[in-house]
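Notes continue from the previous slide.

Worked example: a multi-chain complex. Inputs as given:
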Amino acid sequence: MKRLTLLILAPLLCFSSQAQTVKNKNLRNSISMLVTKYTSNPTSAYYYANELTVPSMFDDNSLNDNTLFVGDYSVTDNSSQIEAALQRNKMGQQILKTILYNARTNQYTKEVMFERGAYTATDNDYKIAMDSKKKEYVLKDMGVWLMKNIYVEVVDCKQFIDLKAETYGDYTNEYANVLNSAQQKLLTGTIYLYKLDIDEILEDQSFWNLIDFENNNNEVQKAFDNYNFKFKKINSVPFNITESKTASGALSVISELLKVDNTQPLKTDKQLLTSMLNKATEKSHAILCSSLPNFSIGQGVFDVHPIRIKVGKKESLKANNLYEITEIVEGSEKEQHVAWIRAKKVSENRFVSKGKSTPSTFYKVSGGSIKKGMTASYVPQKGYEVSVGYNEGSSLLSGTFVELTYLGGGIPKTRVGVRGIFGNAKTDVSENIFGVRDKIFFNVSNVNIETFINHTIKIGFIRLIPKVGFYYSMGRIKNYDEKGKTGLPMSDWGVTEDIKLKSWGFTTGAGVGLNLGKNLQLTFRYDYLSPLDPPTSSRTLTYFAIPIEPIFNAKGVYGVGLTVLGF
Amino acid sequence: MKRSILVAGVILFNLVAIFSCRPAKLADPRTSTSYDYEVVFIRTGVAGTELFKVFSYGRNERECIEASKLNAIKAILFKGIPGSGMQRPMISENGAEEKYRDYFNDFFRSGGRYLNFVALSTDGSIDSRDRIKVKNGKLLKIGIVVSVQKDNLRKQLEDDKIIKSLSSGF
């Protein structure tokens, strides 16, 4: 039974460490990502601090050494120690220097900081600036605004252990072998988000005296080095990441089950930790960033034939990203929904604005007429989807089904899911077995649990969705007459009582999805099941056997379902 | 009798439907003397220009943008714009709009001379925060940044004897 449970959960196991879709709010604040280091380290993660990838919606403020020495490790809470360490290690100075350093002159200068403003400017900002007396200095002023949005993300790791059956106190049976064969590692800890708190000194203008390096004044440099820059805690999120040491955890599980030698190369600790640290930060950004102010509140529609908007790679736009079109209505507190659109061609706009960046093109998914200047806001695709439908056919997969799928970020457009089918298949066996005898029908009432992996391939407006999975079915077979009433007793067919079914095996299939709106999809599908274990029954043969159970196995079903996407 | 009542009912229903769907009434900004627009000073522009954001009303984006150019000039001439170098109106004479009605009708006509002194200061995009649907969705209010050549405008009005030269008193 445990082996069976594991098989059913296998697709979920190998996708358990998938990244979550990052909530993009068009942020372009700067971030430094640090990993904690202690006198006695619980993990070796800090070795790989420089391998962390800064998300594309942030400006990268990485330091030469992205480790943060904290002191003695506390198993309970290290947050206050981390805050003290940020100040003790002069992280404020280190970060500001990354912004102020001019590689051309090898000096710290305010001018470089201003270039950030020019980088964040839109084409409109650029044109207005060029028409003004101050010209590019107008754009550079925008850089000052960015000074108020400097963030530090501190990754504090707690455990990096083998995820073995022994962890669960179970290491003697086949289940343990299967779990151990996956060679999973577990990384736990907490991620803290801090903001460099310079609002006050920006307000009273004393900040500019601190960074006035242009005159090569040693006193200014000294005052800067001695200043106690504070950090304000914004948020914290615990993380729990598992990853397989092998290239494919699922392959290891299957190899163990099928007793096949599997000699895959194992990932090194460096590869594992780098990957797991990045997954941990990626997962946490959605929560951490939810409290940050918007850098840009939506973008205006630039053109409508075709739909074009001046966003692109700088705003982390990806093909097929969903945007909502809204408009401001006088007297209404909330913006009014107009339509849903998706990105088609993503433009490259990651360079300083020269007023002529190419807009990205979009296509309309559903909704009303889109006009120039309406607001287009990014809508992150949520992870879960639910589907209900009906499978028609004389198979264990026939019947009403409810399906829950999870869209991860690890493999694009690939979902893992679990489906419950409440079967009520009927079949006519009279012609197959009894020739001209009375018409006899059998009815299976079963519950079928299936786990699967599917992948969406987009062809125009149609989605092709192939899938593979495992199923486990249990139920009961009864016979009944033509009119749907209970027919002759089971004993007439060599059975003393109703047949109790227990069957499990693989399922394969494919669906064709039609998107009816932003969140609704109609799916037509074909599923086929191939049993690994023949159905068991409690039948007792009396005089001759009739192979009733296979009638409901190794058969396909046609189905139709309605899916609610991304809730 | 019943048939007559039915026909009358249908006609009444159609009339209500037709009148409720007609376009919103909007005064022509060229001839209107009302100040149904808002102007915000943005910054001083290059060589004798000023940059303003003008919020104007229209039935579509094109109407709003055209009205914004015209309203920017009108604001400078007759209203003045707080915070800018044009806090007081360029034409300070009371009733000048009426007195020189023919001149301004020609100046502000479609494709008129006022267009020589105003230009859009954007790349053609409308900021999503500056597009507002008003009056039950029948009108739009759009804000757009324009650049006005105030020095050239003053010179034109001086040449046309609408206003006196700044040096005339000396």
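Summary box: Strands of chain B lie at 38-44, 49-58, 118-120, 131-134, 139-149. Chain B has a mean pLDDT of 82.
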